[in-house]
Backbone:
């Protein structure tokens, strides 16, 4: 793909933009769909995206997908984020689905990937109260009994979309070795012994605590290989960070466009405030940063599609770092340029800021991304 869209991709982007404008184009529509901005996922909108075939954009055709690549999924994430479409479940779904596609059994793929293409939401549970950036330190324990079933006890935290998920991909400890003792498990929603409690955040109901007490799973609930969960997680990090980058690229573009629209219309001292050099230069710098981010995200996506068996840890970390920091800057600058109106809930800028700030934390903090990039140069 490079950085240019194919005619098919351009048509796809135009269709998503039209959908977003029609369904979520006004503040009144968005407030009604999100409970005044407190719920980033709307099941009805999500179902309509599924009916259009878009949720399976990068899933194999044999499981109901469109057979597209990561670049196509990135375009959907970017445009739904820009259009403020409340389809928050898609990002964890596409991240999790790629893990099942790579490591799941045929039965698991038939169930999970087909479900995802039809509108099922997926979540992945890694983080724990004492294991965030250091995922290898997790303590949630899975023990296999003599009958082959697995018994799982522990707690997960900050689990995005667990409250709306049809299933959770759980990472648990099956051996004492820090990294060589982790295993992935398929856990359907409603499994006895699993309790989900929401965590209220600046962004509303996004993340959850997940408590597991005596959860019993069959032997075939293992996704991939026992004790090989760490390597499986590492294999999917380029997907996760790339998708997060695409999502925040869309938000950065939206915050920028909203700020430009405001400074064009807002007048002080007899002329639009955007005509003053101080703001004009801010706009110029932001536009340049966003364009650099767009080129980087699309190039990394193209590389991942062109070489699907190769990992791109440095490039994916660069994309995630650049996009999330740019989105945060765009929202902060937008608020500053709009003054008090940027802080008021009447406008979307404060909502952009709440969504952008946390993006430099989840999916690996900006500090972790910098560490990955630095280590890739032998430092």
Residues:
């Amino acid at each position: 793909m490079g950085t240019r869209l194919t005619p098919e991709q351009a048509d796809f982007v135009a269709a998503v933009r039209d959908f977003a404008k029609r369904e979520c184009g006004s503040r009144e529509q968005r407030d009604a769909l999100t409970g005044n901005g407190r719920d980033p996922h709307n099941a009805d909108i999500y179902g309509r995206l599924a009916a259009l075939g878009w949720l399976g954009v990068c899933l194999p055709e044999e499981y109901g997908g469109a057979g597209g690549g990561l670049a196509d999924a990135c375009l959907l994430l970017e445009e739904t984020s820009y259009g403020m479409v409340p389809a928050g479940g898609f990002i964890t779904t596409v991240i999790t689905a790629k893990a099942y596609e790579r490591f799941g059994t045929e039965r698991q793929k038939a169930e999970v990937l087909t479900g995802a293409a039809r509108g099922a939401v997926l979540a992945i549970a890694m983080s724990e109260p004492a294991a965030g950036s250091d995922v290898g330190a997790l303590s949630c324990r899975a023990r296999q009994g003599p009958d082959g079933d697995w018994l799982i006890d522990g707690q997960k935290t900050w689990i995005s979309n667990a409250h709306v998920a049809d299933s959770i991909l759980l990472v648990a400890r099956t051996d004492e070795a820090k990294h060589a003792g982790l295993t992935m498990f398929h856990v359907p929603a409603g499994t006895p012994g699993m309790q989900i409690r929401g965590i209220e955040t600046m962004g509303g109901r996004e993340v959850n605590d997940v408590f597991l007490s005596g959860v019993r799973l069959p032997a075939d609930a293992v996704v991939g290989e026992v004790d090989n969960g760490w390597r499986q997680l590492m294999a999917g990090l380029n997907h996760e960070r790339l998708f997060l980058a695409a999502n925040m690229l869309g938000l950065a573009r939206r915050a920028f466009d909203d700020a430009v629209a405001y400074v064009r219309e807002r007048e002080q001292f007899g002329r639009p405030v955007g005509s003053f050099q101080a703001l004009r230069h801010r706009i110029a710098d932001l536009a340049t940063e966003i364009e650099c981010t767009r080129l980087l995200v699309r190039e990394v996506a193209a590389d991942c599609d062109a070489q699907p068996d190769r990992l791109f840890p440095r490039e994916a970390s660069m994309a995630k770092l650049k996009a999330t920091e740019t989105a945060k800057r765009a929202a902060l600058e937008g608020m500053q340029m709009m003054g008090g109106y940027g802080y008021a809930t009447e406008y979307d800028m404060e909502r952009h800021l709440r969504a952008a700030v946390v993006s430099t934390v989840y999916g690996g903090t900006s500090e972790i991304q910098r560490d990955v990039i630095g280590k890739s140069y032998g430092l």
In short: DSSP finds twelve helices and ten strands in the chain. The longest strand covers residues 204-217. The chain has a mean pLDDT of 95. The radius of gyration is 21 Å.
